Amino acid sequence: MALYKNAKTPVLSARPRDFLSYLGACLLAAVPPAPAQASEATWEKLDEINVTVARGKDRALQPTEVLSEEAIERRQPTDFTEVFRAVMGVGIRTNSRGEAVLRLRGSEERQSQIFIDGAPISVPWDGRADLSLFPASFIRQVSIVKSAAPIEFGANAVLGVVDISTVEKADNFRLNTRSEVGSHGARLVEGEVYVPLNGASLQLGGNHFTRDALSVASREPIPFDPLAEDGRTNTDLASTSFFGAAALERDWGSIRVSVFDIDAEKGIAAAAHIDPDEGKPRFWRYPDWQMTQVSLAGDFTMGESSNLRINSWHQRFGQQIVSYSDATYSNAEDQQDDLDLTYGGRATLSQDWRHMTGRFVVSAQESTHTQTETDLLSNTSGNEERFRQRLLSIGGEMDIPIGDKVKSSFSLAHDRASTPLTGGRPLQPAITNWAAAGTIEWQASPDLTITTTLGQRTRFPTMRELYGNALGRFLLNPNLKPESALVGDVTFAWAPVDLPIELTFTPWFTHIDDTISQRTVQLDGISRKQRYNLSGSKGFGIEAGLVWQATTALTFEANAFWQELEANRDTRGSRATLYQRPNSQLLLAANYQTPGGYSLRAEMNHLGGAFDENEDGTTARLNPSTEFNVKFYVPVKQTEYGVWQIYGAVNNMTNAIILPQLGLPDAGRTFKLGIRLKGD
What we know:
Low-confidence stretches: 1-50
Structural class: mainly beta
CATH architecture: Beta Barrel
CATH topology: Maltoporin, Chain A
Number of helices: 4
Distance between the termini: 44 Å
Mean pLDDT: 87
CATH class: Mainly Beta
CATH superfamily: TonB-dependent receptor, beta-barrel domain
Largest sheet: 22 strands, antiparallel, barrel
Strand content: over 45%
């Protein structure tokens, strides 16, 4: 057996699963009140049912980058990470826990949030989600906000949000299926059906993905990884997921429930720049990773000028982390079993007056984390520890038109976080703070729109940051404070009606008080990590994007991103380094698509330099990198259910070293080849 293959764990947790009870509990908790009768509804309303933020004729919304279903297909994504790669101002980083996390405009991953069908998918214990385990097949649209997020997203979304919709709309039955193979034994099979039912609809889908390892471009950044066949040790993955949704449209409004369930087993690459004889790299696996999330959304007309939108969600997340003694992954030492149960909801009541529109938003969430640690060498388990966090956000927003060409929206909210259960650690007092934002949109000419945003937001520390020690790796800090961020930008969007181009240009800034960072602390001769608050940090940057429709078949894209981020000086005059924030990003892409369905995409993605922390606490420089990718589709047969296509991709063609952090490089050269049936 190759060294990077599954290293099976000797102990598995018992994990009861009663999926129907979870679904029933969420539905019972989320049943809306009976709405008033309304005017005749149309299927157009269903397009917005799972878009968290409702648009209105007088509302000035923060500029949003939208990825359509067609744009997502061009990227040929297997999982969520491949949807967001090469998107301007968006970064994907695989951290030392093996989680592929999202970063917007150089933010830390907990400073932005990801929503699916109006429900956050980040596990509240840790405040982030592993995007590599979410299949991309059920995504229909992605909206990316990289500024002060609209009020509906609640607390913690301080530097932007990603809002994912799975809503399908079609008049006819649709069938989509595909199967593919790729580098290092990667295999994928998935299928999905959409069934319209006379004012209702049903979606069902499944996905199974496995790989033997992640590819490696060079041993240079990971000299202490015993590679096998150019694959990283302990980076295999097996994931099975199911998705379902049902929607109903009636005169009184619309309602939709969606469910996804993911079961995975995953190896985690060690930080192989660290010599195990001198440092302390960790050798971990997730032999069990499972998430079930149910969300319910509704949009109800409450008379001629009022509207009620609701979202509710229930998330069940369980994982087992096993720690090994060395890179052979044969001697298990410790095990941690986690279970997280989260319930949440949001209600948005809108009122349209003659000269302005108002919204009142209430969102609440409670999450309980339970964990047990077991010493596998002595076969002894510690006490079960329970943690709980409650979040509450109450606010309002007013839309005030200023003439025919200028509209504005201003919001104010009050956020609160409390931790009534702390696993026996000292109880933290509840934390509250105000949030505010303003957006002004000016239609300067038929071709030019200028939008200005300014907002103040708060990110509360997660339960893991406050109380988690990660199998003894972290030193707790009971004095950790929340981050408070002031963010602003100005976006110029130029789309001339007589030219086939679209141009956007956005200068932006951030100012964060009490930025949460991480440091290395020596305690009794042992290096421990600890989270702490910097005095603050600041940053500014520029985004620019160009789309040129050169011909009916050929489109060119150019996106550029540059940022300058730094921490404030502390009381001693020192300035901490902000790690793993690349200073620039450049994307050049060409898309060629014929009416017959032939498609070719070529892209170059350049990532600028950054810094990271060595094991001894010193600073290391991360070099810039450039990757080249090619993707294609070829139609082979038309059927009554759609067209059969052969597709393929070669990513990182030059096998470049892409190093977003020490010891954890991105994949080297990879390929995929598949066949799919795309419904009409």
